[in-house]
Design a protein that fits this description.
Elements (H helix, E strand, L loop, with lengths): L1 H26 L15 E4 L12 H9 L4 E9 L4 E4 L5 E2 L5 E2 L10 H7 L5 E6 L7 H13 L10 E5 L2 H9 L3 E5 L10 H14 L4 E5 L10 H6 L5 E6 L3 H8 L4 E6 L15
Parallel strand pairs: 1-2, 1-11, 2-6, 6-7, 7-8, 8-9, 9-10, 10-11
Antiparallel strand pairs: 2-3, 4-5
Length: about 280
Amino acid sequence: MIKKIFFVLVVSFIALYNLSIIYIDKNISQKKDKSLYAGCHKVWSSRGLYEIKAQQNSILSFQRAFSHGAQGAEVDFYYDVKSDRFIISHKKPKKDQNGTLVYTQKNGKILTLEELLQTFEKGYYFWLDYKNLDRISDAETTQAIKRLLSITQENNLRERLFIEGSNPLRLSDYTEAGFKTLLAVRPLPQDNILASISANLFKIGYYFSNVTALAIPYGEIQNPFYGQKSQEALHEVPVFLFHIPDDENLLYSLVKKEQVRVMLVGRDESKDRFYIDNCK
């Protein structure tokens, strides 16, 4: 009797899973945001183009990247509740003796998202890696959204910002406020027997979540997270790829894929591969 019940449960789960995949594949195109970035210059800059790490996430590094042909850049930032500011920094802030958060400075001062957007107010896109999205309360999130809305009113800025985080519920608050959002996920690597199932589960999550696209690390060339199995499962899902190995053959193959909207080359390094595009 127990074996029969177990068998029925397994069969029911498999049937429900497959029916869900069929349903989502049939309807997922309706979820697509037609205003989502679809430019042919898909290789963006990660924290700008810099010579030393101290220059990353600085006005200078972004100026360099844009002057070399990048159409967009990934930026690391925190929302500082106390000052009601978005502060650009990759490194986690530390507390001083008074309990005040101390952030990494650029050229002797704090660089805010507002200053960055005012400097590059027209034409460029920004992938915003929200470092403390999960660590602020509902009330603080409401405050943060209000602030972000206030600094992105001009020059069609909201259409050129993509907010990344790993919490779909938090991200949905920003989607509902009118921002484009990227849910950070990591499917199982290609050689894992459950790789296809993993990618399909993320597809289900994407479909039922109020987010714009998925942000996925590419992984190793020989055993990628975004390998053939993930690509097949996510063929209708727009993805923003990061930590892509610096291999030209790989980059040229990825840039041709319609579902791949943006690419960041390398990991914790500055790479100028902006000449790789899908322009005709």
